[in-house]
Amino acid sequence: MSTTLHGKQAVLAEMGQHPAVAALAADLAEAFQDARWDRDELTLTIAPRQIVAAGQSMKRAGYNFLEDVTAVDWFPATAPRFQVSYHLLSHSRKERIRLRVMLPASNPTVPTITSVWPSANYYEREVFDLFGITFEAHPNMRRILMPDDWTGHPLRKDYPVEGYR
Amino acid sequence: MSQWTATPILEAPVAEGAKDQTMVLNMGPQHPSTHGVLRLVLEIDGEVVVRLYPEIGYLHTGIEKTCESKFYHQVVPLTDRIDYLSPMHNNLCYCLAVEKLLELPIPEKAQWMRVLLSELTRLNSHLVWLGTHAMDIGALTVFLYTFREREEILRLFEYVAGQRMMTSYIRIGGLALEPPMDFLDRVQAFIRTFPEKIDEYSNLLTGNPIFMNRLQNVGHLSAEDAIALGVTGPPLRASGVDFDLRRDMPYTGYEKFQFQVPVSGRCDVWGRYEVRLQEMRESTKIIQQALDGMPEGAIKADAPKIVLPDREKMKTQMESLIHHFKIVTEGFTVPSGEVYQGIESSRGQMGYYVVSDGTAKPLRVHMRNPSFASLQALETMCRGRLLADVVAVIGSIDVVLGEIDR
Predict the structure, then answer these.
(1) Is B384 at the interface with chain A, CB within 8 A?
(2) According to the model, what pLDDT value does residue B159 have?
(3) Residue numbers in B near A93 (CB within 8 A)
């Protein structure tokens, strides 16, 4: 079994030298809400309003490639209900980190990170389409996989998976 | 590092919005050179592309949603159907993610077999790419040659997994079945002659002036733009970025193999052609090493509550029968947590993000597919170029619509 570190304090104490942790603690101490080291993966929880600043900070720390943006619906939990996960990769350090923001059930919105990584364009559109999470100031916040006139967001846990009986 | 210059893709052009001298052209979704149901809306000025907008989603089947209502082991056959040209990569990536959640060690023979099958899959996918790419450009002959070898690989898959395309052979905890006794000999026979076949394709294409003119200095993509737009795999390496997950973040035992990562600084379609052709040669070497050093031993992890027992044991031992019944009817629970597992598929970095809430069904399975991300770079590569170049560029990023739409 690999070691597990739960909570910001534990991660700061054990992994304070890690470039991502150090950069975040130095640049955005207030926005750095939580951290976890589990199964050799580092997860850093960021305040939703600060995600763009966190992205820029991570980019300066060497995480130059945005690999993926996706979401998880923790229904029936309501506050917070949605989690948006950003997977960042460093080509030079050859490792990955995960940033995540937690969003409430009603009107989930988070600023777009297309200004930091243009590749977020498609990923964020997919999250919007399937989860109904809006990305503020996104250049093209429209459905991508489902038809334009579709109602509802299929990957939400309360989306019906059966028809009428 | 210099700043990227890529521009975001905005709305699709509409006929009324086009300027006086431009027109709007629909390409696809049934166009043969769009490799499936990709629809491109182009605004063209004469023959020059002014804007290009990909419309996707025609193949969306909601696989991610379906995964949430299946047991962990029932998800494996769904992963085949995402990318029908490299099913083993999808199987492998999903299984590695779940094994990471379970912290389940995999026997060495299973790992080596996974490497061998993964590289055969890469050959299979690259052969289809080469045949169709050359066909789009007008070199019809190559298609017949590459499909001859691809047929051999599919026969090997059928021999080992019982299925040609939807193999589902790599399972959580190892492999589905012990490979047939002469399977490795058959792979050896195939690999012995394969390098000559690559020379044969190369002879047909590499010096061909029509092919060279259509590919060279077409679809330029700088390294900064490639990284900014999420491009991975051969197109990224053809833009001069030396990064391959097999070498840089090894999984399933790739660290034990010696191979080169082909890189080209050309940044064009020709560079991507060269990189893929070279990758096929490197894959051949990896398969040869896997054949030479194939260890003895089990092909399934020793975890009776997770891995299905052998048929023989299930029929003769009460305990195995109980485990079999439990796994099939109730699945197995996975400790809660979230993992992201990336592998180098034929098209680039594939990633599976699996979230477990401690039950027998995944809370969320998300696939990061290389084609989906690479498609964003299409406009940057095509803008200001001729309409005919669009066909070459689509071929060079090797899109598979099944994995874009999922």
Answers:
(1) no
(2) 92
(3) none
Whether chain A has a CB inside 8 Å of the CB on B10: the answer is yes
B72: pLDDT confidence band, cut at 50, 70 and 90?
very high
Percent of chain B predicted with pLDDT > 70: 94
Residue-wise pLDDT tens digits, B209-253: 888 888 888 888 888 889 988 899 999 999 989 999 999 999 988
Cα of B95 to nearest chain A Cα, Å: 15
Please answer yes or no on whether A2 and B103 come within 8 Å at the CB atom: yes
- Nearest by CB to B64, from A85, A121, A155: name it: A155
Q: Is the pLDDT of residue B193 over 80?
A: yes
How far is the alpha carbon of B68 from chain A, nearest alpha carbon, in Å? 9
Please check whether residue A53 touches B, CB under 8 A: no
A88: closest CA of chain B, how far (Å) = 11
From chain A, the residues in CB contact with B228 under 8 A are: 117-119
Instruction: Tell me whether residue B13 is in a domain.
Output: no
Domain span at residue B389 reads: 63-405
Smallest CA–CA separation between A32 and chain B, in Å?
A: 19
Residue B323 belongs to some domain of the structure: yes
Q: How many CB pairs under 8 A join A and B?
A: 108
For B245, the closest chain A residue by CA position comes to: A94
B 214-273 → A contacts, CB under 8 A? 227-230, 241, 243, 248-249
CATH of the domain at A41: 3.30.460.80
Q: Which domain holds residue A71?
A: 5-104
A149 part of a folded domain: no
B373 contacts on A by Cβ (under 8 Å): 119, 122-123
What integer pLDDT is reported at residue B34 of this predicted model?
Answer: 67
Rounded to an integer, the average pLDDT of B61-75 is 90
Q: Is residue A89 part of a domain?
A: yes
**B2 inside domain:** no
Does the residue A160 lie in any domain? no
> What pLDDT band is residue B1 in, cutting at 50, 70 and 90?
very low
Q: In Å, how far from its chain's centre is CA B29?
A: 22
What ipTM describes this predicted complex?
0.91
> B405 in contact with A at a CB cutoff of 8 Å?
yes
Domain membership flag for residue A113:
no
Q: What is the pLDDT of residues A19-53, one digit of tens each?
A: 888 888 888 878 888 888 888 888 989 999 889 99
- How much is the average pLDDT of B113-129? 92
State how many domains chain B has: 1
Structural domain tally of chain A? 1
Residue B246 sits in a domain of what CATH number?
A: 1.10.645.10
Examine residue B19 and state whether it is found in any structural domain, yes or no: no
